[in-house]
Every structure is written in C-alpha cells, then in structure tokens.
Amino acid sequence: MKWKLACIQMDIAFGKPDLNYQLAEQWLEKAVHANADIVILPELWTTGYDLTRLNEIGDEEAEKTIEFIRNLALKHQIHIIGGSIAKKTQKGIFNTMVIIDKNGKLVKEYDKLHLFRLMDEHHFLQPGEKDGLFTLDDKICAGFICYDIRFPEWQRAHSARGAEVLFVTAEWPKPRLDHWRALLISRAIENQAYVVAVNRSGSDINNVFAGHSMIIDPWGYTISEAGEESELLTGTLDFTEVSNARNKIPVFEDRRPDYY
Ligand SMILES: O=C(O)CCC(=O)C(=O)O
Predict the structure, then answer these.
(1) Residue ranges of domains in the chain
(2) With a cut of 0.95, is the ipTM above it?
(3) Are the CB atoms for 140 and 164 separated by under 8 Å?
(4) Which of 51, 94, 122, 176 to mutate to test the pocket of ligand 1 (most atoms within 8 A of CB)?
(5) Cα–Cα 20 to 30 A to 16, which of 43, 100, 153, 249?
C-alpha cells in the first residue's frame, strides 16, 4: 500500500486563530490539488506560541478545530493530521494533536508529553499522559510533537507496538536545525519507520523557525525536504519498505529489553 503525503509548512499568524484557520484552509486546498491522501499541519498552528494569551485564544475542548478539520476531511475525502492546537480543558491547557480520518471520524487526540522549558511551555501548558498510537487505513502510526523527538525511548515505545509511520509536528527554531535533521533521521533508522515531520516557517517575536519539513524512509534516506520558506512538501510512502528494512536487519527481534 502507498500513501501520498502533503506536509503544510506554513507561516502562522501570532495569536490570530481566525486568520490561521483561513490560511490553513487555503493550504489544504493546495494539498487536495496535489492528490494527497494525508495532510499534516504544524504545531500550535491556530495560535502560534502566544502562550500568555492561550486562555483567551485557546480552543475549548478543541471543539472548533475538530469541527473545522472534520468538515475539510469530509469535503475532500482526505485524512488530516491536524498538527497541534492549544486545547482548553478543566485540567488546564494541553498542546494537542488532533487526527481526523476521511470519513470524519476523530481517530486520536495526543497531548504533547514532553513540555519544552526553553520556550516556557511548562508555565502555560499541562503535559500529556497518553500514548500517540493510532490507526489509519489499517496501518499503525504514531504522533509526536516537536521536543518529543529528543526522547528516543518515546518513539521506540511506539514502534515496538507496531507503528510504521512516525508523524511529527513542530515549531522548531532555526538555531537548532542541525539537531532537527539529525534527530529525525536517527528516529527513522533506529525504528525502521517512515518519519513525516512538519515544521512551520516564518518567525514570531522570540524565534525564527527552521522550516525544513522532512519525509524520511525507513532506511533513513530523505524522500523530500522543504527549504526555509512556506511550501507544500509532498512525498510518497510505500509500506513494503518498512517490512523490507525490518526483515533485512531484524532490529526488533534482536533487541534485549531485559538488559536496558
Ligand atoms: O528541542 C528543541 O530544540 C525544540 C523544541 C521545541 O521548539 C518545542 O518543543 O516546541
């Protein structure tokens, strides 16, 4: 089975959800024209890192975003990995990835597990407590958010439970672009999985973001990589490559978890 992917590497208007919904819809139309089966949005794409105003501009129980994504998924018959948004709940605000399939079903909500202190997330957000596993077209996938990729045991926990595609949504700053690339390629090689990573472009008052969204195959080879500016990055993923890699080098069988 093959999937055509479209990563929306967009700029995000700081603290302006209404404008960002419009921008995201325009990008999504482009992905539809590119015949994508799955579209992926960046991290906190409705608000950006306007953390001090999240109480005002966050999305109550993610309801507005879910409705927005569901309508587009149904209209275009496309799976949408809805990046992440600030989800307001009674327990506080979470950085939440929302995944809706082409039938409009809410497949998964994943809350960012590792909060990034360098950008003050721990002062404004609550850490997640659940895994990022989900299934689309009978394929096991996993979702991660930005800083999560610095914790290889988190991705391994998901690939050991069958994940063949690791989706990453991010607002990764430009000064650490080398880390972004190296970490993503490593996660693909060690998990013998596709890595589909979407970063934002542009800047906010504190950061310039790196862009360079990437689609990487289970051998660690880059299928496609964006530049620094906004763009729609596409690539095709062929699941036989996952079994080829895992059969040739049986890393999962050779693991010695009793010793780790
Ligand atoms: O780990 C990093 O260098 C960047 C992480 C980050 O920007 C985030 O989690 O939002």
Answers:
(1) 2-259
(2) yes
(3) yes
(4) 176
(5) 100
